[in-house]
Every structure is written in C-alpha cells, then in structure tokens.
C-alpha cells in the first residue's frame, strides 16, 4: 500500500523497505501466490486428484465417449444394416478367444466355421444379422446424448427457477416453493411414463418427459445456495454500487454456487441414463432400428437363454457408464463441497 | 406442531388433487380407444359403449363426475376386465408387490447396515474397500440388469430357484433379491458416511474416556446416533422399490401391481391406469409424511423446528 503522497522524508515515516516477508513453508507460499479467486478451485482440483476413483472413472468416460463415436466407424457394418446370412453369430475377436470372444455358441459349436463366414463380428450379431459392436456403440452414443441434453435442460430450468425464487424472495418465492412442494410429491416415474405415452416414444419425448420432473432437484439446490449467498457482504456491495439484478445473479451469485450445481448436474447424468434404459426396457423407448443401451438390453433379455452375449454386452456397457459417472460425481462432491458428503 | 401437520395435510391434498386432474386430462390425450377391438365395432355399438362408460359427455362433465366418484371411493370400472372394479383389481394385485417390496426392504436394510457399520469401523481396510466397491456397483448397475442376470444364472442355469411366475413362497425370493440390491448399496453407503462423522464427535471421545467398553461405545453411541438419519432414507427407498417393482415384476412375471400397471398402459385401460397412479402417489406421499414424523420422534431438534414454522 502506498502511503500518503510524500512531502519530505521524516525519520518516523514508515517506508516499504521496513517490511520483510515472513519466510513461509513452500506449500503455504504456493497457496498465497495463487490469486484469491482461483484458490478454492485449485484446492478442489487437488482434492479431486487424490480421490482413488476419479481418475480411472474420468478416463473410462473419455474412452467410452470417444468409442461411442469412433466405434461404429471401425467396422464395415452399419447399425441398421441387416444380413440374414449372418444372424445370431456369437462374438468373435481373434486373439481374445480366452475371454469368451471365441465365436462358439452356447453348445460349443463354431458358427463362423459352420457357416463359412470369414469376417469376425466382434460383439456378435442379433437375430437380423445386425452387427452388435456397431449397435452397442451407436446405442451408447444415443444414451449419452439423451442424458446430456436432459441434464443440461434440468440445469437451465433449475438454475433459472431456483435463482429467481431465492433472489426475489417474499411472495414470489412462496408461490414458487408451493409449486415445487406439489411437484416433489408426485412420483416422477409415473409422470414420465404418462408423458411418454402421449408424446409417442422417441428421443425428444424421452428427454422432455425426464425434464418435466427432473429440474426440481436442481432448482432446490440452487435456491438453497442463493438464499445463503444473497445475505453476504459482496452482494450488498454490488447492489450499493448499482449493479443490476440480472448481473448480480449471473456474475456474483451463480458463480459462487457453481460447486453444488456441478455436483447435482453430475448426479443427473447417471440418473438420466438409468431412466432412459428403464423406459426402453419396459417398451416405451426408441423404435427399431434405432438403438439405445436400454433397447439393446431389452432385445437381449428376450433372447437371453439362447444368446446370453446379447444381454451381457450392453448390460456391461451401461454398468460401466453408470459406475464411472457415479464415481466421478462422488469425487466431485467430496472435492467441491465437503459438507454435502452424504 | 398441530398447525405444521395441518399445513402438511393441505399440501398433501392439493398434490393429490393435482395428480388426479393431470392424470385425467393426460389420459384423454392418449392415442387409441379403451375397447379391445375398435375396428370391429359398428358406429352404433361404439356410441352405446361410450354412453355406458359416460365417454359421450363433454370433458368437464366427465371430469366432475370422475372427481365426485373418486372422493366417494368409487374408482371406476376396468375396461379390459369387463365390469371389474378398479379398487378390486388394485387390492387383488397388491399382495405380491407388498411381499417382494417388504422382503427387499428387510434384506436390504439388514445386509446394508451390516456392511456399512463394519466398513466404517475398519475404515481404509481391505474390507472397507470391498464394501465401498460393492456399494458403488450396487448403486450403479440398474436393478433390471441384476434381475435378468439372477434369473438367467440362478433360475435357469443353476435351477436353484424358480425363474418366474408365482406359485409358492420360493417364487418370491429371486424378485426380492433383485430388488434389494439397490437398497443394500444405498443403506451401506449412507450409514458408513454417517458413522465416520459420528466417530469424530467429542461425545464419542468422552464415552471412551469414561471407560465404556469398545463394544458399548460402538453400539450405544456410534450406531444409535448414526441410525437416526437413516430413517430419512426410507422415503427414497420406498420410491426406488416402487420403481423397481414395475420392471422386476415384469421380468419375473409376478402378478403384482407394477405388472398390471404396464399391462394397462399397453391396452389403454384408462380407469386402471388412473387408479394405480393415484394409489402409488398416495402411498408415496404418506411414506414421506410418515418419515418426517418418525424423524421428529427420534430427533427432538427437528420437533423444535416444527414449532418454529407454525
């Protein structure tokens, strides 16, 4: 800090060179050196890295996402291309026979040799001879897409609703909270099923149906956060400086509530993937030839006794995705908001 | 406190009213007719059927009539099963659902509590790692995947238990197990976190300082205090079991309410769909209220809050 403009040096004046830095431990010095605004995020990132599950989960999600787009291009087949001559072939990957990818059916007969098929279907084929490798990755792609869009819609509506409710408070808050109270009382699965029935099954209707009830959780989290924040001094300071309401909301309040928002968003993703699979499994999902993981599991389930691979492969895929998202969300929660751990 | 519950009751009734209203109008928007062979019916037959079920009236009249009947406990007649009361169908179907749901809850709570408590007491041990891994798996893998795998490996391949249908008690075991997996995982995780937090509290230190045996400390102080918040899980658990029964009953061909719900949706049996929706919603709302009450009884601090809000 500069002192008063110098009007001549008196012996009692305190000058900068009188101050010496206190030697600090290297770790603390790093924290001090980081700018104040970044510090919590850096600390969170550090905590995140320490979590056992996060790194593998993150890598797995990345690999699955990339393969969901690249996977279908690695084979000459398309997800809806039918070939009756190749129907119901078991999985075969040369070199991975010991893992069960040996091209043998449940009676131990090598169907590839029996039918003189030279190509290998890595994950086998379904009853129409469609390549399962391509279908599984295509399905993963669709499941991820549905989850992502549903989560983003929840985020948008939830942040807006919760933010407005908390920031304006009073009567507005009261009315908005009563609406939420009623919505929370409705079992969301039933609403989702009813809406799908009306909207006719498809990607858009699944997303819309999930959003109708899905945003409530996000809205509640955001409201709670903003209620806590809006009483703090920096908001008062911003307001007395004449900052507009919307600017206070989007530049001051929401960035400070980002931690819990991200955590809630991360937990929405596996929930959405589950609901999509669930709907498809009870026959309210996508229509053939489109495939999501839920549709594939449903198809596989029907032929489970004769062709277990048709069920096992998409089931493993959806489980891997759910596990990774849950682990990542857990890690993020612990790292971003230690208080939310429950 | 009385005012608090009156308020809650008000919200409950409003919620039910809105659910009834929304379901009614959604049903009207559904494609298809509730009659099994609409193409084969002549204009005249269709008109007389519509008249019989009151479907020829204008919508507001149908709606008012529906609400009036609902309040009087008349939930209508099924279209699919000629002339059968919706309430009869619900009561006939509820048995198997309650049985597997209850069993799943009991199995899930016992195994979940056991796993969670042991792993919290041995934090960071190999057992803890195993339990946490299992909990993540249980929470992540969809229950219908478990159900399908259980049915295939235990029911079909090993043949230990019947893979489907509903004849004697043994038929309820596999569906209950499949349903309980999510409960086990959720309870284990919850009690573990809760216990780890309680273990760091000062009163545990003072209990140890008093010279209480380790078992006494764990049982009387740690576990008891950790159990209180577990009650809050009953609500979400009941919901997950309700969700679960829909698909697990379908997989194991259990003649329960969930299976009926899906069947009714497939054939547009309006009155049954509405009835089951309302039934599920009422159940759900009651469970939430019950959980709040139990929580208040267990934890005096919550009771004080009720007083404040009045």
From TrEMBL, chain A:
Keywords: Cell membrane, Membrane, Peptide transport, Protein transport, Transmembrane, Transmembrane helix, Transport
SUPFAM superfamilies (alphabetical): MetI-like
Signal sequence bounds: none
Compartments reported by the entry: Cell membrane
TM region(s), chain numbering: none
Superkingdom assignment: Bacteria
GO CC terms of this entry: plasma membrane
Membrane topology label: Multi-pass membrane protein
The UniProt record lists the keyword Transport: yes
GO BP annotations listed: peptide transport; protein transport; transmembrane transport
InterPro entries with a match to the protein in the record: BP-dependent_transpt_permease, MetI-like, MetI-like_sf, OppC_N
Pfam family, one: OppC_N
Domain ABC transmembrane type-1: 140-329
The keyword Phosphoprotein is assigned to this record: no
PANTHER family, per database record: OLIGOPEPTIDE TRANSPORT SYSTEM PERMEASE PROTEIN AMID (PTHR43386:SF24), OLIGOPEPTIDE TRANSPORT SYSTEM PERMEASE PROTEIN APPC (PTHR43386)
Family: Belongs to the binding-protein-dependent transport system permease family. OppBC subfamily.
Protein name per UniProt: Peptide ABC transporter permease
From TrEMBL, chain B:
Primary localization: membrane
Alphabetic keyword roster: Cell membrane, Membrane, Transmembrane, Transmembrane helix, Transport
SUPFAM superfamilies per record: MetI-like (SSF161098)
Entry's Gene Ontology cellular component terms: plasma membrane
Pfam families listed in its UniProt record: BPD_transp_1 (PF00528), BPD_transp_1_N (PF19300)
Domain ABC transmembrane type-1: 94-295
UniProt record similarity statement: Belongs to the binding-protein-dependent transport system permease family.
Protein name: Peptide ABC transporter permease
Source species of the chain: Brevibacillus parabrevis
